[in-house]
Amino acid sequence: MSIEHHTSNLPNEIIEIILLHLPIKSLLRFKSVSKSWNSIISDPVFTHTHLQFSNSPHLFLIKNRSFQGAFSLLKLEAKKFHREAVLSGPYGWNTVLCHCNGVLLLTDSYFKPTCYALWNPSTRTETYFTFRYTFYEDMNYGICYDPAIHDFKVVFAAGKNYAVFCCKTDTWTRRVGFPFKGTHSGVFADGAYYWVWRDKEDVRHVVYFDSRIDKLKRLQKPKQLTDEDHVSVACLKDSLCLYCNALGDETKVRFWIKEKGSSFKNCWNDWISCM
Amino acid sequence: MAAETGTPTTLTLKSNDDELFSVAESAAILSVTIRNMVEDGCAGGVIPLDNVDGKTLASVITYMNGISAIPADEEKKKSYRDKFLSDKDFETLADMVLAANYLNMSCLMDAVSAKIAQVMEKKSVGWVRRKFGIENDYTPEEEAAVKEEHKWTFEGVETDDDN
């Protein structure tokens, strides 16, 4: 066609609003439309807004049992799961150590891993890096999106040592923290990564990674919790949730929801008890 | 503001191509732009809407009347919006998104931009350029590089039919 019926040119702020409604696959394709579209779509603030956008469908990633190293990407729409794609992780790795905002930390083997990949199944992109220290104790992992740099930081913690890898700058920071034992999976919630760790006396502590200062810190537990309580962490509607079964009676559960925001003091106002 | 009781107030809206439309104030104030004019007392005579043409304004008023007739039931409102937008072509949707933005009608803005995204979702890069009137400012090498980087996103793209 030689003559096109051109629509009135939409200003960039309206184009941006329209693009927020698109799935990631279309967005990545439309980076080819023009340089200005590419810069709208590549803007970290746009990416973050798109992630928070409530209209985007919920995606789930599960290990595919039929193929070694493959994952199924499921989309939840209208209360039904649809399989979007079967994806192979980088190098076929399928040991998932932790995740944050849909980005997974993968490794080659669960025992003594040295090579790691951050994989985003939605954009089909990955970054590789190698752990450069020798930590002898069991490793704990965490991953945190740092809004100040619009990129991820990965935490490796073992015994009293921990190291932080900054993806943006490709640099490591090593620190000495407080001693703890064992491996514990954590959770990313409301801007920070949280774990429950046991010290030498088996007392459980809620520990979090503060990406603003690249340090691990202890979070004061709710006053109703004793040192003996077996507390766990979860993420509920992007808030940190602590929950704890009553000793000897798993039918009784108590929940605490951390107040939203970056304050880590006196943040336990609400709690629910299911008896 | 009009009183809750008594005769309903009617406003007269004027498009940029000088068409006049009568609309109940209760429906028109879905537009924050119009509501502000009413509250500031500038709605006595004719309200000029310099950025909206008659065809688009007629459509927006149909929407205003339709949606305000539905009681507070989000499900019903949503299905009205879906039905209202279902037969609109891309050019009409583009005019409506501009009008919704100018009139500051967040519910229409949301629905129309979601509808445009739905229409675009599986379209080609060329289709988007034509419909949005965008000039390709990449060199052939640059364009090939961007496409290569996201090769998988070009699978399952609809062939252009320009609808």
Automatic annotation (TrEMBL), chain A:
InterPro entries: F-box-assoc_dom_typ1, F-box-like_dom_sf, F-box_dom, SCF_F-box_component. Pfam families: F-box, FBA_1. It comes from the Eukaryota. It comes from Erythranthe guttata. SMART domains: FBOX (SM00256). This is F-box domain-containing protein. Residues 4-49 form the F-box domain. Coiled coil: none annotated.
TrEMBL record, chain B:
The keyword Mitochondrion does not apply. GO terms for biological process: jasmonic acid mediated signaling pathway; protein ubiquitination; SCF-dependent proteasomal ubiquitin-dependent protein catabolic process. Residues 11-65 form the SKP1 component POZ domain. Residues 108-152 form the SKP1 component dimerisation domain. Keywords: Ubl conjugation pathway. SUPFAM superfamilies: POZ domain, Skp1 dimerisation domain-like. Pathway: Protein modification; protein ubiquitination. It comes from the Eukaryota. InterPro entries: SKP1, SKP1-like, SKP1-like_dim_sf, SKP1/BTB/POZ_sf, Skp1_comp_dimer, Skp1_comp_POZ. GO terms for cellular component: cytoplasm; nucleus. One of its GO terms (molecular function) is cullin family protein binding. Part of a SCF (SKP1-cullin-F-box) protein ligase complex. Involved in ubiquitination and subsequent proteasomal degradation of target proteins. Together with CUL1, RBX1 and a F-box protein, it forms a SCF E3 ubiquitin ligase complex. The functional specificity of this complex depends on the type of F-box protein. In the SCF complex, it serves as an adapter that links the F-box protein to CUL1. Belongs to the SKP1 family. This is SKP1-like protein.
